[in-house]
Design brief:
Layout (H helix, E strand, L loop, with lengths): L2 H17 L2 H12 L3 E2 H8 L3 H13 L3 E6 L2 E6 L4 H23 L1
Antiparallel strand pairs: 1-3, 2-3
Helix pairs in contact: 3-4
C-alpha cells in the first residue's frame, strides 16, 4: 500500500474511531432522527454529565460528523452526514446474521 492509499484508509479509520463508542453512536442516531438537539437534551439522553457528553460531541465534531451552532447560551448540534442510517442498517444485518449463526451452533 502506498502512502496516498494508506492516508485514505487512515482518514476512514479516524471516522470509525469517532463512532466506536456506544454513547457516540446513540448521539448520532438521535441527530440523524431529529434536525438538531441541544447539549442538555443529549445529556439527558445519554445519562452522563455534561462534560462527558461534551467530550463525545467534540470527538464527533472533529471527525466532521456533526456541526454546532451557538444560540445565546445554548449549543445546538446537528448531523452533517446523511449516510449513517444506511451504515446502521448494515450493522444490524451483520448482528442478526451473527446471532443466527450462534443459534445454529448451539443446536
Amino acid at each position: 500500500m502506498n502512502k496516498k492509499e494508506f492516508a485514505k484508509y487512515e482518514a476512514r479509520a479516524q471516522i470509525f474511531k469517532a463512532l466506536a463508542h456506544p454513547a457516540r453512536l446513540r448521539i448520532m442516531d438521535e441527530l440523524t432522527q431529529y434536525d438538531e438537539r441541544c447539549v442538555c437534551d443529549l445529556t439527558a439522553l445519554i445519562g452522563s454529565d455534561m462534560s462527558t457528553v461534551s467530550r463525545h460531541l467534540s470527538v464527533l465534531k472533529n471527525a466532521g460528523l456533526i456541526g454546532v451552532e451557538k444560540r445565546g447560551q445554548m449549543m445546538f448540534y446537528r448531523s452533517t452526514v446523511c449516510c449513517l442510517s444506511g451504515f446502521s442498517d448494515c450493522v444490524e444485518k451483520v448482528l442478526a446474521s451473527n446471532m443466527a449463526e450462534q443459534r445454529a451452533l448451539l443446536k
